[in-house]
Amino acid sequence: MRGGRGAQSGAGRTDAERRGLWLPPCFLKAWLVGTMNVPELRSRLSQAGQAHLLQFWPELEEAQQMELYAELEAMNFEELHVFFQKATAESSQAQRDGMDARMEPVPREVLGSATRDQDQLQAWENEGLFQISQNKVAVLLLAGGQGTRLGVAYPKGMYDVGLPSHKTLFQIQAERILKLQQLAEKYHGNKCVIPWYIMTSGRTMESTEEFFAKHKYFGLRKENVIFFQQGMLPAMTFDGKIILEEKHKVSMAPDGNGGLYRALAAQNIVQDMERRGVGCVHVYCVDNILVRVADPRFIGFCVRKGADCGAKVVEKTNPTEPVGVVCRVDGVYQVVEYSEIALATAQRRGPDGRLQFSAGNIANHFFTVPFLRDVVKVHEPRLLHHVAQKKISCVSPQGQRVKPDKPNGIKMEKFVFDIFQFAKKFVVYEVLREDEFSPLKNADSQNGKDNPTTARHALMSLHHCWVLNAGGHFIDENGSRLPAIPRLKDANDVPIQCEISPLISYAGEGIESYVAGKEFHAPLIIDENGVHELVKNGL
Fold it and tell me: How far is CA 158 from CA 167, 197, 287, in A?
C-alpha cells in the first residue's frame, strides 16, 4: 500500500511484476547466480497435477525461463486446487438449486429512495456533508479493469468518451471529490479531506500511477490518493489444469472485484483508514460516468439508518434487463444474477405496479470501517469464488497459439457484494438511473448499449436538465427556445451538447448565477474559467 505511489516504481519492473507477482529478493538473487531449483519445481508441479506448465522449458530463452520460474514459484498450488474444487462445486450446486422459491424482495423498511422519500433527502444530504467535513468519509475505486472491450489496451479510467472537455473518467471523479470537499467546508467551516483509495490490478497499476502523476493528481494531494493492487489468479481448464497463455507465461486474470477484501488485508489498507480516522467508505466501479463519488445523500442515509453495509441501486423497470438484483435469499441479503431468476419471477409486480424484484445492482456500496475490518479479519476466507466460463487464448500441446471460438476454460473471481451476508444492518438506497448510472463497457461499434456514445449522451442530458432547473434556456439558430425534453428515450436520441465541470457543480447545485434567465446556443461548457458560449438576452 502506498500514498500516491506504488510499492515500487514502474522503471525496471519485469513482466511478471507488472502482471501482479511480487518477486522476493531471494528469487532475484537466484536468477543472478543461476541457482533456480528446477527439479524441485518440477516435483511440486507433478504432485499438483500441473507438470505440463514446464513442457516447453527446453525451448525457452534464459530470460523467459526466469519469468516462468518466478511466476510458478510464487503460486500456492494446493490453495488453487481448493479454490477450484469449491468454486466448481458451488457453481454446480447453484445451477441445481431453485432460486426463485427462496427469494424475497427488499422490504420497504430498509429501503431509501430518491423519488419516494423526497422529504428526507435534505436531512440525509446534511448528515453526509457533516460526516465529510469531519474527515470521516473515504472513497474506494475499483479500477482493475482494462479497456479491452472498448478497443484500448490501457485502464478504463483513462478513457475519454468524447465530451467537449475531453476529460477522462479519472479526472471527472477526481474533480467531484474536490468539489465535495469544498461543499463540506462551505457548510461546516472545516477544511477536510476525502481520501481516495484506488484498487488496480497487475495489468493497470503502473499505467494508472503514471497517469495520475502526469496529471498532478488532478488537483488532489498526492498523499491522499492511495494506490493498491488486487490479486491475480490463473485461468484453468474445466478439469483444473492451469492454462499457458504463451510458452513462458501463465494466463492470469484479476480475482474479481471481490478480491478487494484480500487486497485490503494484504496491503494494510483498513489500518490506513483507521489511522486517518475514517468511519465509512463509499465503494464504486470506475466505468460509471455519472457516479456521485462519496454521495452525501447515500452516506447520510446509511449513517442515519445505523447501517454497517449499504447498496445503492437503480429501479429495474424491464424484467428481462440483464442486471443482478439485490434481494433476500433464505433471509440473507445478496445479489442474484439475472440468469438465475425465472422469467415468471422477474415479471412479478406489486400492488403499485412496480416490479417486486426491482433493486438493480450497480456495484455502488457503503461500508463502515469496523465492518470492513471484520470482513478482512474474520469473513474473507469464507467467501467462495464464482466461476466464469471464458474463451481463453492459450498454447496448444504442440506449442501453437490458439484463439478459441467457444469457452475452453474458467476464470475464478469473487464479487464485491459477496459480503452483504455478514452485515448486521443492511440498507438499500434507490436512485434514478438517468441521474446516476451510465456504465461504459463496450466500444461504439458494438451493440449500441453502454458505450462511449451512451455515456457521453447521458452526462450531457443530465447537465441540460441542470441548466433548465436553474432557470436557463437553449435556443436554436433562429432564436427560438428549444423544447425542454432533455431525457433520452433511446440510443438514437441526441442530446443538446452541454457540459458542466464538476468543479462548478457536484449535482446541479450552485449554477443559477451562470444560467438563470439566460439563453444559450449549444454547445455550452461551464467550467472554472467561465461560460463558454454566447449568451443572448441575458438578464
Answer: 9, 16, 10
